[in-house]
Amino acid sequence: MEKKVPYSEFGYKVFYKIRPALKKLLKINVVGLENIPLTGGCILAANHRSHLDPPVLNIISPRPIIFLAKKELFEVPILGWIIKKAGAIPVKRDNRDLSTIKKAISLLKEGYVIGIFPEGTRARPGEFRKPQPGVGYLIEKAKVPVIPILVEGTDKILPVKSKFPKLFKYNIDVIIGKPINFEGISSYEHVAEKVMHEIKKLKEVKRDG
């Protein structure tokens, strides 16, 4: 019996056909795409400033990304339907939602890509929030490559509380780092902090570029 994928295959086929147009429309620049593994389970960990972040990451990723998303988003008309079709996993407010973590780990073992936002919610423009310790718990248990990603510009195109994107005015920069080494880190909190530290460091890559 053929294994059923956790997202709409038809939806992703359509999405992949229009990705080049979406990338041009949103003026997305990408650095470090080669750092995303083409096979095997891995976690993509990015900063979060806009509801535009998940689709932008799926636009540039060579593989479908299954995001962990706040449970409340699944109740939003249209958006809730879209993220369900994309295979998103609902996350409760509890940092250590064990059922969510078990599902994410199971998908990682099956070779899928899981996308997370360590801050847990959107940060203010140009800022970073403190990472959630539950992120460290997931990473520690999953034991797969974790790829740090910096996304900048999405908060200008679709700011918090904005209903419509401000297209054509701004660029979006996506900087993808190399897998993080967690050797010697002793606690979930420190693992989460390490992830955010590596994401912030990618600002230097952008500046040098």
From TrEMBL:
GO molecular function: 1-acylglycerol-3-phosphate O-acyltransferase activity
Pathway: Lipid metabolism; Phospholipid metabolism; CDP-diacylglycerol biosynthesis; CDP-diacylglycerol from sn-glycerol 3-phosphate: step 2/3
SUPFAM superfamilies cross-referenced by the UniProt entry: Glycerol-3-phosphate (1)-acyltransferase (SSF69593)
Enzyme superclass (EC): transferase
All residue ranges annotated as the Phospholipid/glycerol acyltransferase domain in the record: 42-154
Official protein name in the record: 1-acyl-sn-glycerol-3-phosphate acyltransferase
Species per Swiss-Prot/TrEMBL record: Sulfurihydrogenibium yellowstonense SS-5
Family: Belongs to the 1-acyl-sn-glycerol-3-phosphate acyltransferase family.
UniProt domain comment: The HXXXXD motif is essential for acyltransferase activity and may constitute the binding site for the phosphate moiety of the glycerol-3-phosphate.
EC number: 2.3.1.51
Reactions this protein catalyses: a 1-acyl-sn-glycero-3-phosphate + an acyl-CoA = a 1,2-diacyl-sn-glycero-3-phosphate + CoA
Superkingdom of this protein's organism: Bacteria
Annotated coiled-coil segments of the chain: none
UniProt keyword Lipid biosynthesis, yes or no: yes
Swiss-Prot/TrEMBL keywords: Acyltransferase, Lipid biosynthesis, Lipid metabolism, Phospholipid biosynthesis, Phospholipid metabolism, Transferase
Keyword Transferase carried by entry: yes
GO cellular component assignments: membrane
CDD domains membership: LPLAT_AGPAT-like
GO BP: phosphatidic acid biosynthetic process
